[in-house]
Design a protein that fits this description.
The complex is a heterodimer. By secondary structure, chain A is an all-beta fold. Chain A contains no helices and eleven strands. In chain A, a hairpin with a 2-residue loop joins β6 and β7. Chain A starts with a strand and ends with a strand. In chain B, β5 and β6 form a beta hairpin. Classes of the chains: A mainly beta, B mainly beta.
């Protein structure tokens, strides 16, 4: 089936680390993505991880993948007020020669002083 | 590089009317996908166009149709609008059809049906 699940809300203090979790169902997904959406805006691609990797680090962002449990997480170090947004986890389904993205419902990250 | 551009940014239509949304892909991209994002939800895949043909379709009725032009730009048409069609419509462009494809999204068109 096609289903991606995320917790809906996360509140952190400025300067702390944020961890946003996601579970997906399709074990054939080759790439998993994290997108950020600020109010009134489209989706911004933050990072992605290939399914044969366990971890990927990109500046303040760390993505961890547990393929056995189909669990993906995004860690934001030193969270800033500018990180306040909705974060979407997405898996890419490749079928019949064509691909599409399946998104979770999004996690709203609120950063407070 | 202007990235993915969508027009219009906002639109108000009356139930039963028809609407056309437009998308210009990022320079060099040949594939356009459309997504519907209802309030408080994640984007849902509507369909994808490649080489001017619809290649994949999500679980949306035939009232939703589209087109891709030779310059890779695309239109999304929705007929007989329902109140439930109110949403943010996102266009994403990408290059090719590989298993690893980075999709870039536009700012979206906010459609309100009254």
């Amino acid at each position: 089936g096609e289903d991606v699940e995320q917790s809906l809300f996360l509140s952190v203090r400025e300067g702390d680390s944020s961890v946003i979790n996601c579970t997906y169902t399709d074990s054939s997904s080759t790439y998993l993505y994290w997108y950020k959406q600020e109010p009134g805006a489209g989706l911004q691609l933050l990072t992605y991880i290939f399914s044969n990797m366990d971890m990927k680090q990109d500046q303040r962002l760390t993505v961890l993948l547990n393929k056995k449990d189909k669990h993906l997480s995004l860690r934001i170090a030193d969270t800033q007020t500018g990180d306040s947004a909705i974060y979407f986890c997405a898996e890419i389904l490749f079928s019949g020669g064509y691909n599409k993205l399946i998104f979770g419902a999004g996690t709203r990250l609120a950063v407070h002083p | 590089d202007a990235g993915v551009t969508q027009s219009p940014t906002h639109l108000i239509k009356t139930r039963g009317q028809q609407v056309t949304l437009r998308c210009s892909p990022k320079s060099g991209h040949d594939t356009v996908s459309w997504y519907q994002q209802a309030l408080g939800q994640g984007p849902q895949f509507i369909f994808q166009y490649y080489e001017e043909e619809e290649r994949q379709r999500g679980n949306f009725p035939d009232r939703f149709s589209g087109h891709q032009f030779p310059n890779y730009s695309s239109e999304l048409n929705v007929n007989a609008l329902l109140l439930g069609d109110s949403a943010l419509y996102l266009c994403a462009s990408s290059l090719g059809q590989g298993a690893r494809t980075e999709a870039f999204f536009g700012q979206g068109t906010r459609l309100t049906v009254v």
